[in-house]
Write a structure and sequence with these properties.
By secondary structure, the chain is an all-alpha fold. It contains 5 helices and no strands. 59% of the residues lie in helices and 0% in strands. The radius of gyration is 17 Å and the shape is globular.
């Protein structure tokens, strides 16, 4: 009897990157990194029981989710950061990250867990709005 190949049959990395999927995820990770840094900075100035600490942790975890979806050998391209990146609010950065998820092929085996990132981003956007960002 022949052996059954139990390895995950995902889309080749080159195929997904041909449409910019990995670069899009890399951009999402960069936006979330900046948003997390800004929220943590604001949380440091707030009271210890401020809900900003929860928001900062949530954004940081979303950044980790986006990074985990990238292939191990993916390297973020060396690009100059957008000039106004630090001037954008965390809410603007979260909205941009969510918008970048819309064309992602979440039905592909390599991105099957990406739907959780989309849901978490929507929750974080709602939470940030509620905090006045």
């Amino acid at each position: 009897m022949g052996q059954t190949d139990l390895r995950l049959k995902g889309t080749p990395v080159d195929t997904l990157n041909a449409d910019g999927t990995w670069d899009r995820l890399g951009s999402i990770a960069q936006l979330l990194h900046q948003a997390a840094a800004q929220v943590w900075s604001d949380a440091d100035e707030a009271a210890p029981d401020s809900p900003l600490h929860d928001l900062g942790l949530g954004v940081y975890l979303a950044h980790s989710q986006a990074s985990a979806l990238l292939p191990d050998d993916y390297e973020l391209p060396d690009i100059d950061p957008l000039p106004d990146l630090e001037e954008r609010t965390p809410l603007q950065l979260l909205n941009e990250a969510e918008e970048l998820t819309r064309p992602l092929p979440l039905h592909q085996a390599d991105l099957v867990h990406g739907w959780q990132l989309v849901l978490d981003l929507c929750d974080l956007i709602r939470e940030a709005r509620g905090l006045g960002y």
